[in-house]
Structure to design on (111 residues):
């Protein structure tokens, strides 16, 4: 038997008249900032009207850099701009694709 176990067995558990208190620590989880790099890369490679995909990719990389440094506010600002540019690149790319299919079909039917 260890010395501490013997003392607890002989003396009993410590009696403290003060109530037990506990401390709770809230650890804030790091906010996730989506940088839209994959979406921007897709728009850069496949649908790049008016270089919007490339510009969105540049903003996405800036957002990722800010996030790595710890500047979440700057990362969110760049990510928001990249998202807006990606949306416009996607919309214009889809419209251009539809027009490139519809216009030749209409011309072919006219002849």
């Amino acid at each position: 038997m260890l010395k501490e176990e013997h003392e607890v067995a002989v003396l009993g558990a410590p009696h403290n008249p003060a109530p037990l208190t506990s401390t709770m620590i809230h650890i804030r989880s790091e906010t996730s900032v989506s940088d839209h790099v994959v979406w921007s890369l897709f728009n850069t490679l496949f649908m790049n009207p008016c270089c919007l995909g490339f510009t969105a990719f540049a903003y996405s990389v800036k957002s990722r850099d800010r996030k790595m440094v710890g500047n979440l506010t700057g990362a969110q600002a760049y990510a928001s701009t990249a998202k807006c540019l990606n949306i416009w690149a996607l919309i214009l790319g889809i419209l251009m694709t539809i027009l490139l299919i519809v216009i030749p079909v209409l011309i072919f039917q006219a002849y």
Summary: The CA atoms of residues 8 and 14 lie 8 Å apart. The chain has a mean pLDDT of 84.
